[in-house]
Amino acid sequence: MDIPFLLIAGEAYINDERLPARIIHVTTYRLFISPTESSYSSIDCPIRSIDSIVMKDDIYLNIQCKHIRSFRLKFVTKNQRDYWFRKLDDMIVLPTYLWAIHKGCEGK
Fold first, then answer.
1. Spatial distance between the Cα atoms of 67 and 23, rounded to a whole number of angstroms
2. What pTM did the predictor assign?
């Protein structure tokens, strides 16, 4: 499999049959988007730096990062947009086990 970037230690590629024509690459650490046209630059965004994802119209996802970076993804169908919204939204949610660790430290 051709990945347009080097994986860092502990990073794993998430293989998904719904990945559109090698445009969107998702790992346990990052969201990488390769543009179809050479006039656009690629996007390399750490998953945990994504602050919010908003659906616009029927085919757009607006992604806002914590460091004031934002970008818009355009999909062919509403179903694709909904799928990627759910997938990315699930990835940016804090794991529940962090709260369990925090609760265990209370009173110490």
1. 23
2. 0.74
Which has the closest alpha carbon to 59: 77, 85, 83, 35? 77
Give the tens place of pLDDT for each residue, 19-60.
Answer: 666 788 888 899 998 877 777 788 899 998 999 999 998 899
- What's the CATH class of domain 13-94? mainly beta
CA–CA distances in Å: residue 9 to residues 6, 25, 39, 97: 10, 17, 31, 22
Q: How remote is the C-alpha of 108 from its chain's centroid? A: 36
Q: In what order do the strands lie in the sheet with 60-65?
A: 50-56, 60-65, 70-74
Q: With contact defined as beta carbons under 8 Å apart, do 38 and 64 qualify?
A: no
